[in-house]
Amino acid sequence: MPDRPTQGRTHFRGAAGDWPGQPAGGSDSGPISDEDVVDQLSAQLEVAKSLAAEHLASLQRTAADFANFKRRTAEDRERELGLASESLLRKLLVVADDFDRALDHMPAEFKGAGWIEGIVLLDRKLRALLDSEGVTPIETVGRAFDPREHEAIASVAATGRPDGEIVDEIQKGYRVRDRVLRPALVAVAGGEAGPSDTTSHTN
Fold first, then answer.
1. Residue 8 — left, alpha, or beta (φ > 0 → left; ψ -120 to 50 → alpha)?
2. pLDDT tens-digit profile of 117-139?
3. Range 134-194 has CATH code 1.50.10.10
4. Between 20 and 30 A from 31 (CA), which of 46, 118, 132, 190?
5. Which band of pLDDT confidence, cut at 50, 70 and 90, is reported for residue 37?
């Protein structure tokens, strides 16, 4: 019997691995067992988990770096604003000093005058403004000298007070919250009187 013609037949030979269970090596390698498929899938899953963990760690580092950057930026901004604010407050202290001198040396005959009361009112408003910004005066006379808050510009002997005690305030000092804005200029007790410190009177 003559061979049947092959014309019209369709021969399908897909690429390796096209058939379920067929390995990449082609049909000659034989079918893959269920255990092999599970092992391959498990290996791929472990690789995917490892990559996901690496990406997550990278994202966490990036988020931490960004949070640190925001914190440093905020701290720098606060520090710059604080320095600008303290500089302005120091300028206001100069005005407060002028008010102190004007009121301390005001002639007695001017007391009670209307324009004097206006000056006193302005002084009170300035003090209220400083107080609202956390500016408070530094204690001086009668306290022990503290180099962190006081600057000694004179030493007074034979005061009868312990050495280092502040006996006079030359210029007020101020602190803003927990920092010294301007140290107080003071005179402190120190030592016994020498020949030049004693004044004798003869009748």
1. left
2. 888 899 999 999 999 988 999 99
3. no
4. 46
5. confident
Distances (CA, A) of 155 to 169, 170, 183: 12, 12, 17
Determine the pLDDT at residue 201.
37
* pLDDT > 70 fraction of the chain, expressed in percent and rounded: 75
Predicted structure pTM score: 0.54
| Residue 134 to residue 141: CA distance in whole angstroms | 22
Question: Which helix (H) or strand (E) element contains residue 105?
Answer: none
Residues 104-123 as b or e (16 or more Cβ within 10 Å = b): eeeeeeeeeeeeeeeeeeeb
pLDDT at res. 140: 94
Question: What are the sequence ranges of the domains in the chain?
Answer: 32-76, 134-194
Mean pLDDT computed over every residue of the chain: 78
What does the radius of gyration of the chain's CA atoms come to, in whole angstroms?
44
Structure tokens at 183: 């140290």
CB-CB contact of 175 with 163 (8 Å): no
Q: Please answer whether residues 89 and 130 qualify as being in contact, where contact means their C-beta atoms are separated by less than 8 angstroms.
A: yes
Alpha-helical runs (H) found in 105-193: 114-132
Per-residue pLDDT, 80: 65
**Residue 67, pLDDT score:** 86
Q: Both tokens of residue 122?
A: 């302005």
